Amino acid sequence: MRALIATGLFAASAAAQTGDHRADVAYYTQRYDGADIALSHFHCGAASAVRTADERSAWLACYGRFTANYQAALPVGRSIPAEVADAMSDAELAQAQKRMSEVFVQIAQEARLQAGLVLQAQGNGALSARSASDRPPSLPVQTHPPEDRP
């Protein structure tokens, strides 16, 4: 009888622990928006507002902080807290990684576009031969499947 009660308590405890993370699991599988890695998270300012060389340098330094954070979040799914990942089923983890991968690609594309605008801007907004040929700093795009977590 004690073994049955202990087993029931253990099962209830495990269910409660998993239940504690249901909102987090739903966030990563259904609503993840990348706010934690987005360029806007760093408050670099609008690329179209960059007018001077100093503003351009400051914006690009901010962009550098963004790219470092972006790269630190790879591979996709790495930023899911361990306790939340442990509460996910294999299907939920795969769904979260798929959603996050799509969001990461979109964020990288938008950031590259903004960086391109900044690199092209010079002083009064005119383009120079040098700035027009500058390429925006690249961001890695995950080209391999995300690693499985146990």
> Between the first and last Cα atoms, what is the distance in angstroms?
33 Å
Quantity of strands, as a count = 0
User: What is the count of helical runs?
Assistant: 6
Largest sheet: none
Domain tally: 1
How big is the Rg?
22 Å
Q: Provide mean pLDDT, rounded.
A: 79
Classify the helix fraction into a percent range.
Answer: 55-70%
The parts where pLDDT drops under 50 for at least 5 residues are: 3-13, 123-133
Q: Outline of this structure?
A:
The chain is mainly α and 150 residues long. The chain has helices at residues 2-20, 22-31, 53-72, 82-87, 90-120, 129-133.
Explain what the structure shows.
The protein is mainly α and 150 residues long. The protein contains 6 helices and no strands. The chain has one domain (2-133). Helix 3 packs antiparallel against helix 5. The longest helix has 31 residues, at 90-120. The model is unreliable at 3-13 and 123-133 (pLDDT under 50).
Element layout with pairings:
Layout: H1 2-20, H2 22-31, H3 53-72, H4 82-87, H5 90-120, H6 129-133
Helix pairs in contact: 2-5, 3-5
